[in-house]
Amino acid sequence: FHQMLIELPVARFRGLMTIGPPVEDSEQARPLFRELREANERLGGSWLSMGMSDDYDLALAYGSTQVRLGRTLFGPRTPVSGLI
User: Fold this and answer.
1) If phi over 0 gives left and psi between -120 and 50 gives alpha, with beta otherwise, what is residue 60?
2) Three-class SS of residue 26?
3) According to a count of CB atoms within 10 Å of the terminal CB, is the N or C end of the chain lower?
4) What is the pLDDT of residues 7-62, one digit of tens each?
């Protein structure tokens, strides 16, 4: 199934992305990052997007080429009521 998605003529596969579950210790994300890296290698991806403010260092150690550091750069978000 995955190979069929990668070979679709209307899409260009570059790699995989994940947003891990919130964890108290970034080490808990290690198995997820390892599995995603291995899957990306099997599928031939060159991009690997994983890691956020709390676990970016571990994601980088597992080969992430893109991380999201919003809270690290901009501070905590203020919830806005009334939005879906």
Assistant:
1) alpha
2) helix
3) C
4) 778 878 899 999 888 888 888 989 999 999 999 998 889 999 999 888 889 999 99
Q: In 3-state terms, what secondary structure has residue 48?
A: strand
Residue 2 backbone phi and psi in degrees, to 5: -60, -40
Overall size of the chain counted in residues: 84
C-alpha distance from residue 11 to each of 19, 37, 49, 69, 73 (Å): 22, 21, 18, 27, 32
Give the predicted TM-score (pTM) of the model.
Answer: 0.76
Closest CA to 38 of 56, 55, 20, 15: 15
Distance, in Å, from the CA atom of 61 to the CA atom of 22, rounded to the nearest integer, reads: 19
